[in-house]
Amino acid sequence: MLVWLPSAPREAGARTALAAAHHTLPDLDLVPVATTNTPATPATPHDPAAARWLPLDNSPRGRLPLAALTHTWPHLPAVSAPDPTDTTSLDGDLYPPPPMPPN
User: Fold this and answer.
1) I need a surface site. Which of 22, 39, 50, 64 has the fewest CB within 10 A?
2) Using CA atoms, how far apart are residues 44 and 37, in angstroms rounded to an integer?
3) Which domain covers residue 44, as residue numbers?
4) Which residues contact 62 (CB under 8 A, 6 or more apart)?
5) In this predicted model, what pLDDT tens digit does every residue of 21-80 receive, in sequence order?
6) Is 92 part of any domain?
């Protein structure tokens, strides 16, 4: 889970809350978490690929680029391209649910 916050103080507060919630999970590896804040990378304040992501485990490596998070969480399965011969997967078209009247 990646969480982007508007400021460093908000990120610090969110990290405290996320760490408390994260440690209640039965398997911490199921939900990897990293946070960032907009001023974390002044040269590229809106670039999600920049070295701005701080894993929740307080890694000594500091802030990492988005692509490096896969090395931080090696237990996650690799992302692969969809198989064009797989006819059982969704066609990619998602539709909203039918409207429902208020209760």
Assistant:
1) 39
2) 12
3) 2-72
4) 54
5) 999 999 888 889 999 999 999 999 999 999 999 999 866 788 999 999 988 888 887 766
6) no
